[in-house]
Amino acid sequence: KAGVTQTPRYLIKTRGQQVTLSCSPISGHRSVSWYQQTPGQGLQFLFEYFSETQRNKGNFPGRFSGRQFSNSRSEMNVSTLELGDSALYLCASSLTDGSNEQFFGPGTRLTVL
Amino acid sequence: AQSVAQPEDQVNVAEGNPLTVKCTYSVSGNPYLFWYVQYPNRGLQFLLKYITGDNLVKGSYGFEAEFNKSQTSFHLKKPSALVSDSALYFCAVRDRGNNRLAFGKGNQVVVIP
After folding, report:
1. Among all residues of chain B, which has the CA nearest to that of A44?
2. What mean pLDDT is reported for chain B?
């Protein structure tokens, strides 16, 4: 089975712009989660989707949004980018959102200038 | 709200010595507990999980973890560390009641030859 794929792998944007990141889960996985990873803050949970519904949300401002499509693919959008949004954004998928472990993608490295 | 504490930023251990990475958690209900590892320039990988049953869980690469409900801990252990175990280790907890997931900040493990 193919793993979790994320596109693009690298992205450079300027302050005030918006960005959309994409995640394709492992085939058959219905749960997709997004995380922000930075050296100072570690791994921060953004949100989790299951069957197109947002099930959980972390403590991020409303500039961060996401959605999941019927084929389980997910997108994450960040509007009005700030310098502090520079991070590695990780997507993870799992069969369900309960006891199953998550499989992580390689991440999208976002740099905001 | 659920939370995870990994109290040590970095764990240094000599090759061949036992390795322990500490994790304590807080949830309102019963937990699902997970350990993940992130090798340099690679994505996060699942190591092991506790769902129910035997408190001692065995996982990949010779790692194991013990669930201790009274101490709300889930420490990761390996009897004999290898240089290749040098990586960033994350503990995670999911509350079975509200299904919310939280990751610890991660522990850098350095195995010294």
Report:
1. B103
2. 93
Chain A hits for B36, CB-CB cut-off 8 Å, are: 102, 104
Distance CA B96, CA A104 (A): 21
Best to test chain A binding among B44, B67, B96 (most A CBs inside 10 Å): B44
pLDDT at B98: 76
**Nearest residue in chain A measured CA to CA from B39:** A106
Beta strands in chain A (DSSP E): 5-7, 10-13, 19-24, 31-38, 42-50, 53-57, 64-68, 74-78, 87-94, 103-104, 108-112
Pairing of strands B19-21, B3-5: unpaired
For B85, the 3-state DSSP assignment is helix
| Cβ(A34)–Cβ(A76) below 8 Å | yes
The one-digit pLDDT tens for each residue of chain A (113 residues) are 689 999 999 999 999 999 999 999 999 999 999 999 998 778 899 999 999 999 888 889 999 999 999 999 999 999 999 999 999 999 999 998 688 899 999 999 999 99
